[in-house]
Design brief:
The complex is a heterodimer. By secondary structure, chain A is α+β, with helices and mostly antiparallel strands. Helices cover 43% and strands 28% of the residues of chain A. By secondary structure, chain B is of the alpha+beta class. Chain B has a single domain (6-164), classed as 60s Ribosomal Protein L30, Chain: A (2-Layer Sandwich). Chain B has helices at 69-82, 112-126; strands spanning 6-9, 15-19, 22-29, 33-39, 44-50, 91-96, 131-136, 142-147, 153-157, 161-164. In chain B, a hairpin with a 3-residue loop joins β9 and β10. In chain B, α1 crosses α2. Chain B starts with 5 loop residues before the first strand and ends with a strand. Classes of the chains: A alpha+beta, B alpha+beta. Chain B: This is Probable chemoreceptor glutamine deamidase CheD. Chain B: Its EC number is 3.5.1.44. Chain B: It catalyses: L-glutaminyl-[protein] + H2O = L-glutamyl-[protein] + NH4(+). Chain B: Keywords: Chemotaxis, Hydrolase.
Chain lengths: 197, 165
């Protein structure tokens, strides 16, 4: 677990740096949490299955496949857009095509930097697929990332990092859900014995 | 007189049954399918939140039968019959099975929503339970709720609003 936490830490550190550069202001991140959670608990992490979220989803392919989500509340998404792209989203509920596309690209940059640092650290090939963006109920979105785990049991391993700007404003959360068969490979690449506990 | 309604929550890969004044609800269905059975005579209803099409692919030691279409549907039927439902009156409705993310050339996993729907239909056919309404497919999430007294299925979604089946 500590190894996975460290991996999450390094990935998120790079993503936080990338986000800082985009925003041109310091971004902190909370220490990543690595937890084995049941499906309900995972959606509770973003406020429940019905909570409305924006999510950039990338399938990770290569040696250690998995699912990577960058999740933002609607407020955080608007904040991010207005600060980075100078798009004044205003009070309108819906984001335009242009805004969605910008959001997807931001997610892509962050996820890419997260992933490439993981790949460097583990010497495993990990490459992202084209990102997909969705705005919907958290349960519906995250459920998709849990399918591989669904074949094994009712729990999934989640590496969860929250970004903070200033005091306690949550900018977004990274959820990395490695496929079950990826753990032994990740551990092996780091020279750590893998046990199933 | 207004009777107080109790809400029975069904989680992911879970199923439950209720009667009379209860509402059975499951939230945030994406590629999962919410399948409901209803006996109008006894006012009994059941709901399963099906995650995967077939238990053949299960690699777990202890099988969670609520998770797979081929095992969840018969189990839900048995639970309703145990409550006193009359088999010949039972009808089914379902919602969900969407494709949350569209990718070019999508693999099998990508098509899991439509496969869940097909598999639920097959399970119903094998049990000879008529499917009287469905709201499946698309690329959005749904929250559904069945009223055990009427069998009406309420569907809410962020993108497409609400509807009743």
């Amino acid at each position: 677990m500590d190894v996975l936490k460290e991996i999450g830490n390094i990935g998120a550190g790079n993503a936080a740096t990338a986000l800082s550069q985009l925003l041109n202001k310091p971004i902190d991140m909370a220490v990543p949490k690595v937890q084995l959670l049941n499906f309900e608990e995972i959606t509770d992490k973003v406020g429940g299955a019905e909570e409305l979220v924006y999510a950039v989803f990338l399938r990770v392919e290569g040696d250690a496949p998995g699912n990577l989500f960058f999740i933002l509340s609607p407020e955080a998404a608007k904040n991010l857009l207005s600060r980075i792209a100078g798009i004044d989203v205003g009070v309108s509920e819906e984001l335009s095509e242009m805004e969605l596309s910008a959001l997807s690209e931001i997610g892509n940059i962050l996820a890419g930097s997260y992933l490439s640092s993981l790949a460097d650290f583990t010497s495993l090939t990990m490459y992202p697929t084209v990102p997909a963006l969705a705005m919907d109920m958290a349960g519906a979105i995250l459920g998709y990332g849990l399918l591989q785990f669904g074949q094994m049991g009712d729990d999934a391993l989640l590496i969860d990092t929250t970004f903070l700007e200033g005091n306690n404003e949550i900018e977004g959360q990274f959820f990395l859900i490695p496929d079950p068969e990826s753990f032994p490979k990740i551990f092996k690449s780091l020279g750590v014995p893998f046990d199933n506990d | 007189m207004i009777e107080e309604q109790s809400i029975i929550k069904v989680g992911m890969a879970d199923l439950n049954v209720g009667s009379q004044v209860s509402l059975i609800r499951t939230t945030g269905l994406g590629s999962c399918v919410g399948l409901t059975l209803f006996d109008p005579g006894k006012k009994l209803a059941g709901m399963a939140h099906v995650m995967l099409p077939s238990s053949d692919i299960a690699r777990e030691g202890q099988l969670n039968i609520a998770k797979f279409a081929d095992t969840a549907v018969p189990e839900l039927l048995n639970r309703l019959l145990a409550l006193g439902a009359i088999r010949s009156r039972i009808v089914a409705k379902m919602a969900g099975g969407s494709q949350m993310f569209a990718f070019a050339g999508g693999s099998d996993t990508m098509r899991i929503g439509p496969r869940n729907v097909e598999s639920c239909k097959l399970a119903l056919e094998m049990l000879r339970i008529p499917l009287i309404a469905e709201d499946t497919g698309g690329n959005y999430g749904r929250t559904i709720e069945i009223a055990c007294s009427t069998g009406v299925l309420f569907i809410r979604s962020v993108q497409k609003g609400s509807k009743e089946l």
